[in-house]
């Protein structure tokens, strides 16, 4: 029996639009206007003094972006950082979700501990890490130099590009993996347990059960998690900037361009280029890497 289609009258349609109007207006003000204004100033030379008029320069800002070697270095660094953090945090969250998909004593407490790094304000975590790896009184240097005596010199964790990149990546993985964990736990709880029981009867291994039962169930969620995490990590700024000045990802590069050198036109051009890059990257993940099946 086919469900009947409900036809809305003209008054119902107007009432629906009236209810949506506040949200639409808010979206236009907070998202639409800044996007349009950003596109406009990307073709202008914007002076610091707001009383002075902006000068139209055409594609000069975009040309300056593609001539800047620092831009390419920042893009390369950001792509590596995004790939490392997204892949490891997603895989780690999925592994813990699969392991936790069972009943045991203290499960609620363990769940609370797992998501703790995600719900605690980022600033608190950042300064805790800066304290742990402080060059003078950090506990990590105390353990490595004074207790374990691995080295005689104090490692300058956040003052060297290589070690700073590794620590920032570890911090981002630790901070963001609970999002993947919560997403996968939610979908795993909806999987019929009888499927796993049937797989056990057939003598399936753990990997075979994951491949045949778990993966098809979590595939749409996996695509969503990877896509969102790629976008968020690609534009990361706060965590990197507050931890170190040695990891020049695109968020930091864009901030310095806009508010350190006050080149607002070039900064706007960079943001448009980044939008194209991240959009293409997400589409590549969805269609080529994960090969999402359209339902």
Structure, explained:
The chain is mostly helical and 295 residues long. The protein has a single domain (78-289), classed as MetI-like (MetI-like fold), CATH 1.10.3720. Helix content is 72%, strand content 1%. The chain has 13 helices and two strands; from the N terminus they run H-E-E-H-H-H-H-H-H-H-H-H-H-H-H. It has helices at 10-41, 60-67, 69-100, 107-114, 116-119, 122-132, 139-147, 161-188, 193-201, 206-234, 238-243, 250-260, 264-289; strands at residues 44-45, 55-56. It has a two-stranded antiparallel ribbon. Helix 3 packs antiparallel against helix 10 and helix 8 (161-188) packs across helix 10 (206-234). The longest helix has 32 residues, at 10-41. The chain is globular. The mean pLDDT is 82.
Give the SSE layout.
Layout: H1 10-41, E1 44-45, E2 55-56, H2 60-67, H3 69-100, H4 107-114, H5 116-119, H6 122-132, H7 139-147, H8 161-188, H9 193-201, H10 206-234, H11 238-243, H12 250-260, H13 264-289
Antiparallel strand pairs: 1-2
Helix pairs in contact: 2-13, 3-8, 3-10, 8-10, 10-13, 12-13
